[in-house]
Design goal:
Order of helices and strands: EEHEEEHE
Number of helices: 2
Number of domains: 1
Oligomer: single chain
Structural class: alpha+beta
Radius of gyration: 15 Å
């Protein structure tokens, strides 16, 4: 995976799902009354094999903490979890980035999709749009074409 642009934009959308989007975000909100038992197997991530994973996570986190990262105001609350998915249309290159809202800022986090489904509701979602030029490196991923 290449380096993502520092100017990426997180857009809200009027669609029913993110299934046709290669790059999207999903906002999860904790539901104290939800306690589903989700059964499945964990698929090991290949993020440790990608030398650009950590720099990309930092770039995305920094962008999320800017006031104009989203196309409209979203009322984030403490402990919200945001997943950013890039290259969903290419499973071998798909990257998931997870962040948690703490003390008014997004911080790096890691949650399994099973845990999110068992204790959180989907509060919102949208597409990730390229803006500007990539930070550095190649430009062959969908996000920065």
């Amino acid at each position: 995976m290449c380096l993502v642009s520092k100017e990426i934009k997180f857009c809200t959308c009027e669609e029913d799902s993110t299934s046709d989007r290669p790059n999207y975000w999903v906002l999860h909100r904790f539901n104290k009354d939800k306690d589903l038992r989700v059964v499945g197997s964990v698929v090991r991530s290949n993020k440790d094999l990608d030398p650009n994973y950590k720099p990309n996570k930092k770039t995305i986190r920094n962008r999320l903490n800017k006031p104009n990262a989203f196309d409209k105001e979203i009322p984030f609350v403490e402990n919200d979890v945001l997943n950013v998915v890039l290259n969903d249309d290419d499973y071998g290159n798909r990257k998931d980035f997870c962040f948690e809202y703490k003390n008014g800022v997004w911080i790096d986090s890691e949650y399994s999709s099973m845990w999110l489904k068992s204790r959180f509701d989907v509060y919102g979602y949208g597409k990730v749009e390229p803006k500007g030029k990539p930070s550095t490196g190649n430009t062959d991923i969908n996000l920065i074409r």
